[in-house]
Amino acid sequence: MSRKKALKGAKGASKSPKASPCKDGVGKSGKCAVAASGGAVHPSAPSISTSGGFYDVAFKVMLVGDSGVGKTCLLVRFKDGAFLAGSFISTVGIDFRNKVLNIDTIKVKLQIWDTAGQERFRSVTHAYYRDAHALLLLYDVTNKGSFDNIRAWLTEIHEYAQQDVVVMLLGNKADATHNRVVKKEEGEKLAKEFGVPFMETSARSGLNVELAFSAAARELKHRSTKEPEESKFQLQDYVDREMRSASCCH
What we know:
The protein is an alpha/beta fold. Strands 4-5-3-6-7-8 form a 6-stranded mixed sheet, with helices on both faces. The chain has a two-stranded antiparallel ribbon with strand order 1-2.
């Protein structure tokens, strides 16, 4: 696959999830044209990412879930390696950041969209579902209500997202052992019911944060580059294997 240098926003987007027509999400005009898998091109706000370089393929990943489950903290931990401590501030509407990962010699750019969980912003979030290649659905293990609402979120995803969108269920704030009200087994059971990969994460400690994003990137990269004779990439098997390996190392 040939590497593509960033160009000014294109008028037409390909259905293939190849390189976005901007370097690091920003064109000369200060805005990037985000290519949707359905062929539409949507102007977006300027990227606040500082990661540079070229990329081979680009994908749009959305963080969704109730307000307060830790979506912004998870994104900041993954992008900057830091925990966003302090008072809770709700995301207003939509925000995004970019990060380029090296997956099997392929440079994969993830454009990660952080969405507001409040009901009043839900119609805005719905508009972005259609272009998403992957959705990371979060609940808070210390908040039973956020877990109970997962079924409603999955219903929305089924209604508004692409049929083949990658969905992962993440039980966040796993470090808060004393305040936990949702058992890991409950998350595993729900994920199995809906046939989606599952893991617990912690933006505070960094538990499985890198793995969540890299696993989604690996699945998307595999879909876009695999040869007909290649076997299907098993996302949950990969996640389980990586978590077992991490446990052994510790």
